[in-house]
Write a structure and sequence with these properties.
The structure is a single chain. This protein is α/β, with parallel strands linked by helices. 35% of the residues lie in helices and 22% in strands. Strands 1, 2, 3, 4, 5, 6, 7, 8 and 9 form a nine-stranded mixed β-sheet that branches.
Length: 272
Amino acid sequence: MAAPLLQHINVKFKNLKISIITATLNNSSTIECCVNSLLAQTHKDIEHIIIDGGSSDGTQSFLGEYSKSHDNVVYTSERDSGIYHALNKGLALATGDVIGFLHADDLLASDTILQQIMNQFQKNNAQGVYGDVQYVKQNNISKVVRYWKCQKYQNTLLHKGWMPAHTSLYLKKEVYELHGDFSTDYSIAADYEFILRIFKPQDTAFSYLPKTIVKMRLGGTSNRSIKNIILKMKEDYKSMKLHELPNSLWVLTLKNYSKCKQFNHGILSYFF
Protein backbone atom coordinates (compact mmCIF):
# COMPACT_ATOMS: atom_id res chain seq x y z
CA MET A 1 0.00 0.00 0.00
CA ALA A 2 2.91 2.38 0.62
CA ALA A 3 4.32 2.31 -2.91
CA PRO A 4 1.82 4.69 -4.61
CA LEU A 5 2.41 7.29 -1.92
CA LEU A 6 6.19 6.99 -1.97
CA GLN A 7 6.22 7.73 -5.69
CA HIS A 8 5.53 11.38 -4.78
CA ILE A 9 8.63 11.82 -2.63
CA ASN A 10 10.93 12.92 -5.44
CA VAL A 11 8.42 15.25 -7.11
CA LYS A 12 9.12 18.98 -6.75
CA PHE A 13 5.91 20.97 -6.38
CA LYS A 14 5.70 24.64 -7.23
CA ASN A 15 2.87 26.93 -6.21
CA LEU A 16 1.36 24.37 -3.88
CA LYS A 17 -2.31 24.90 -3.20
CA ILE A 18 -3.30 24.48 0.42
CA SER A 19 -6.73 23.64 1.81
CA ILE A 20 -7.38 24.98 5.31
CA ILE A 21 -10.32 23.37 7.11
CA THR A 22 -12.13 25.21 9.91
CA ALA A 23 -14.99 23.67 11.89
CA THR A 24 -17.22 26.17 13.67
CA LEU A 25 -20.06 26.11 16.18
CA ASN A 26 -21.06 29.35 17.90
CA ASN A 27 -17.64 30.98 17.60
CA SER A 28 -18.75 34.55 16.95
CA SER A 29 -16.25 35.99 19.44
CA THR A 30 -13.18 34.44 17.77
CA ILE A 31 -13.96 33.54 14.15
CA GLU A 32 -13.07 36.98 12.75
CA CYS A 33 -9.61 36.84 14.35
CA CYS A 34 -9.13 33.35 12.93
CA VAL A 35 -10.15 34.43 9.42
CA ASN A 36 -8.01 37.58 9.52
CA SER A 37 -4.91 35.54 10.33
CA LEU A 38 -5.56 33.53 7.18
CA LEU A 39 -6.28 36.56 4.99
CA ALA A 40 -2.96 38.10 6.06
CA GLN A 41 -0.88 35.19 4.75
CA THR A 42 1.77 35.92 2.12
CA HIS A 43 1.04 32.53 0.54
CA LYS A 44 -2.11 33.22 -1.44
CA ASP A 45 -3.02 29.91 -3.08
CA ILE A 46 -5.40 28.97 -0.27
CA GLU A 47 -8.75 27.20 -0.26
CA HIS A 48 -10.62 27.87 2.98
CA ILE A 49 -13.21 25.23 3.79
CA ILE A 50 -15.54 26.12 6.65
CA ILE A 51 -17.89 23.53 8.13
CA ASP A 52 -20.37 25.14 10.49
CA GLY A 53 -22.44 22.92 12.76
CA GLY A 54 -25.54 25.13 12.75
CA SER A 55 -24.40 28.14 14.79
CA SER A 56 -27.01 30.41 16.36
CA ASP A 57 -24.85 33.22 17.78
CA GLY A 58 -23.98 35.32 14.72
CA THR A 59 -21.21 33.07 13.41
CA GLN A 60 -23.29 32.18 10.34
CA SER A 61 -23.93 35.84 9.54
CA PHE A 62 -20.20 36.63 9.54
CA LEU A 63 -19.29 33.53 7.54
CA GLY A 64 -22.03 34.17 4.99
CA GLU A 65 -20.59 37.60 4.21
CA TYR A 66 -17.02 36.26 4.26
CA SER A 67 -17.80 33.48 1.79
CA LYS A 68 -19.67 35.83 -0.58
CA SER A 69 -16.72 38.21 -0.78
CA HIS A 70 -13.99 35.58 -1.28
CA ASP A 71 -14.04 33.13 -4.20
CA ASN A 72 -11.65 30.74 -2.46
CA VAL A 73 -14.05 30.03 0.44
CA VAL A 74 -16.19 26.88 0.59
CA TYR A 75 -18.82 27.26 3.31
CA THR A 76 -21.55 24.93 4.52
CA SER A 77 -23.73 25.01 7.62
CA GLU A 78 -25.69 22.03 8.89
CA ARG A 79 -25.84 19.93 12.02
CA ASP A 80 -23.13 17.33 12.37
CA SER A 81 -22.25 14.49 14.73
CA GLY A 82 -19.28 16.19 16.35
CA ILE A 83 -15.93 17.80 15.55
CA TYR A 84 -14.42 14.82 13.74
CA HIS A 85 -17.51 14.34 11.57
CA ALA A 86 -17.21 18.03 10.64
CA LEU A 87 -13.48 17.75 9.86
CA ASN A 88 -14.12 14.68 7.72
CA LYS A 89 -16.70 16.62 5.72
CA GLY A 90 -14.04 19.25 5.15
CA LEU A 91 -11.52 16.62 4.03
CA ALA A 92 -14.01 15.29 1.49
CA LEU A 93 -14.31 18.77 -0.03
CA ALA A 94 -10.60 19.63 -0.05
CA THR A 95 -8.92 20.06 -3.44
CA GLY A 96 -5.51 21.36 -2.30
CA ASP A 97 -2.14 19.63 -2.66
CA VAL A 98 -1.69 20.12 1.10
CA ILE A 99 -4.33 20.05 3.85
CA GLY A 100 -4.24 21.65 7.29
CA PHE A 101 -6.65 22.63 10.05
CA LEU A 102 -7.27 25.97 11.71
CA HIS A 103 -9.83 25.84 14.50
CA ALA A 104 -12.25 28.72 14.92
CA ASP A 105 -10.73 29.68 18.30
CA ASP A 106 -7.19 29.76 16.93
CA LEU A 107 -5.02 31.89 14.66
CA LEU A 108 -1.94 31.41 12.53
CA ALA A 109 1.17 32.55 14.38
CA SER A 110 2.59 34.85 11.68
CA ASP A 111 1.75 36.24 8.24
CA THR A 112 4.44 34.10 6.59
CA ILE A 113 3.90 30.78 8.34
CA LEU A 114 1.98 29.06 5.52
CA GLN A 115 4.69 30.09 3.04
CA GLN A 116 7.31 28.66 5.40
CA ILE A 117 5.34 25.41 5.59
CA MET A 118 5.08 25.22 1.79
CA ASN A 119 8.82 25.87 1.47
CA GLN A 120 9.48 23.07 3.96
CA PHE A 121 7.46 20.64 1.84
CA GLN A 122 9.46 21.46 -1.27
CA LYS A 123 12.89 21.76 0.36
CA ASN A 124 12.63 18.37 2.05
CA ASN A 125 10.42 16.50 -0.43
CA ALA A 126 8.11 16.01 2.53
CA GLN A 127 4.66 14.49 2.65
CA GLY A 128 3.96 15.90 6.09
CA VAL A 129 5.19 19.01 7.90
CA TYR A 130 4.60 19.84 11.56
CA GLY A 131 5.84 22.43 14.03
CA ASP A 132 5.26 24.06 17.40
CA VAL A 133 2.14 25.46 19.08
CA GLN A 134 1.59 28.23 21.60
CA TYR A 135 -1.41 28.14 23.93
CA VAL A 136 -2.61 31.63 24.78
CA LYS A 137 -5.18 33.19 27.09
CA GLN A 138 -8.73 33.31 25.75
CA ASN A 139 -8.91 37.10 25.94
CA ASN A 140 -5.22 37.93 25.54
CA ILE A 141 -3.50 36.22 22.62
CA SER A 142 -0.19 37.87 23.49
CA LYS A 143 -0.12 35.98 26.82
CA VAL A 144 1.54 32.61 26.17
CA VAL A 145 0.68 30.10 28.90
CA ARG A 146 1.83 26.84 27.35
CA TYR A 147 4.41 26.10 24.65
CA TRP A 148 4.18 22.78 22.82
CA LYS A 149 7.65 22.45 21.30
CA CYS A 150 8.05 19.46 19.04
CA GLN A 151 11.15 17.77 17.64
CA LYS A 152 12.38 15.82 14.65
CA TYR A 153 10.54 12.52 14.41
CA GLN A 154 12.20 9.25 15.39
CA ASN A 155 10.31 5.97 15.49
CA THR A 156 11.02 5.51 19.22
CA LEU A 157 9.15 8.70 20.15
CA LEU A 158 5.69 7.15 19.85
CA HIS A 159 6.65 4.76 22.65
CA LYS A 160 7.32 7.77 24.89
CA GLY A 161 3.88 9.30 24.41
CA TRP A 162 5.09 11.78 21.79
CA MET A 163 2.85 13.36 19.21
CA PRO A 164 2.78 16.63 17.26
CA ALA A 165 -0.20 18.89 17.83
CA HIS A 166 -2.62 18.04 15.04
CA THR A 167 -3.28 21.77 14.45
CA SER A 168 0.40 22.11 13.51
CA LEU A 169 0.34 19.09 11.17
CA TYR A 170 0.04 19.70 7.43
CA LEU A 171 -0.19 16.72 5.09
CA LYS A 172 -0.18 16.06 1.39
CA LYS A 173 -3.64 15.03 0.24
CA GLU A 174 -2.23 11.65 -0.77
CA VAL A 175 -1.60 10.82 2.89
CA TYR A 176 -5.32 11.02 3.61
CA GLU A 177 -6.08 9.01 0.47
CA LEU A 178 -3.78 6.25 1.73
CA HIS A 179 -4.54 6.27 5.47
CA GLY A 180 -8.13 7.54 5.60
CA ASP A 181 -9.75 10.28 7.64
CA PHE A 182 -10.60 10.65 11.36
CA SER A 183 -12.32 7.75 13.10
CA THR A 184 -15.73 8.78 14.42
CA ASP A 185 -15.48 5.97 16.98
CA TYR A 186 -13.74 8.60 19.12
CA SER A 187 -15.43 11.70 20.49
CA ILE A 188 -12.42 13.59 21.82
CA ALA A 189 -9.11 11.98 20.79
CA ALA A 190 -9.47 10.84 17.18
CA ASP A 191 -6.57 13.12 16.26
CA TYR A 192 -4.20 11.01 18.39
CA GLU A 193 -5.45 7.77 16.83
CA PHE A 194 -4.94 9.30 13.38
CA ILE A 195 -1.40 10.42 14.26
CA LEU A 196 -0.51 6.90 15.42
CA ARG A 197 -2.02 5.55 12.21
CA ILE A 198 0.16 7.69 9.94
CA PHE A 199 3.40 7.84 11.95
CA LYS A 200 3.73 4.22 13.12
CA PRO A 201 4.00 2.52 9.67
CA GLN A 202 6.94 4.81 8.71
CA ASP A 203 5.77 5.03 5.08
CA THR A 204 5.39 8.82 5.08
CA ALA A 205 8.20 11.39 4.86
CA PHE A 206 7.79 13.94 7.69
CA SER A 207 9.70 17.18 8.22
CA TYR A 208 9.81 19.21 11.44
CA LEU A 209 9.65 22.99 11.03
CA PRO A 210 10.97 24.56 14.27
CA LYS A 211 8.55 27.47 14.19
CA THR A 212 5.32 28.27 16.00
CA ILE A 213 2.59 27.35 13.52
CA VAL A 214 -0.53 28.33 15.41
CA LYS A 215 -1.69 30.09 18.55
CA MET A 216 -4.43 28.14 20.30
CA ARG A 217 -6.72 29.68 22.87
CA LEU A 218 -6.91 27.75 26.13
CA GLY A 219 -10.11 25.92 26.92
CA GLY A 220 -10.26 23.28 24.20
CA THR A 221 -12.71 20.40 24.45
CA SER A 222 -10.20 17.81 25.66
CA ASN A 223 -9.18 19.81 28.75
CA ARG A 224 -12.36 21.74 29.43
CA SER A 225 -13.36 19.59 32.43
CA ILE A 226 -12.14 16.69 34.58
CA LYS A 227 -14.72 14.50 32.85
CA ASN A 228 -13.26 15.33 29.43
CA ILE A 229 -9.67 14.82 30.61
CA ILE A 230 -10.59 11.34 31.86
CA LEU A 231 -12.42 10.55 28.61
CA LYS A 232 -9.43 11.68 26.59
CA MET A 233 -7.09 9.41 28.58
CA LYS A 234 -9.44 6.48 27.98
CA GLU A 235 -9.53 7.17 24.25
CA ASP A 236 -5.76 7.67 24.11
CA TYR A 237 -5.31 4.28 25.78
CA LYS A 238 -7.77 2.72 23.33
CA SER A 239 -5.67 4.11 20.44
CA MET A 240 -2.45 2.77 21.95
CA LYS A 241 -3.93 -0.72 22.25
CA LEU A 242 -5.36 -0.54 18.72
CA HIS A 243 -1.94 0.31 17.29
CA GLU A 244 -0.17 -2.18 19.54
CA LEU A 245 2.08 0.19 21.46
CA PRO A 246 3.78 -1.93 24.14
CA ASN A 247 3.42 -0.90 27.79
CA SER A 248 0.47 1.29 26.91
CA LEU A 249 -0.27 2.40 30.49
CA TRP A 250 3.31 3.64 30.84
CA VAL A 251 3.13 5.38 27.46
CA LEU A 252 -0.10 7.07 28.57
CA THR A 253 1.62 8.26 31.76
CA LEU A 254 4.53 9.69 29.76
CA LYS A 255 2.14 11.37 27.32
CA ASN A 256 0.30 13.18 30.10
CA TYR A 257 3.48 14.07 31.98
CA SER A 258 4.96 15.68 28.86
CA LYS A 259 2.09 18.17 28.84
CA CYS A 260 2.89 19.37 32.37
CA LYS A 261 6.36 20.44 31.20
CA GLN A 262 4.86 22.65 28.50
CA PHE A 263 3.48 25.25 30.93
CA ASN A 264 5.64 28.36 31.22
CA HIS A 265 5.03 28.96 34.92
CA GLY A 266 3.76 25.60 36.09
CA ILE A 267 0.39 24.03 35.44
CA LEU A 268 -1.37 26.51 37.74
CA SER A 269 -0.75 29.19 35.12
CA TYR A 270 -3.52 27.51 33.12
CA PHE A 271 -6.03 28.74 35.66
CA PHE A 272 -4.70 32.22 36.51
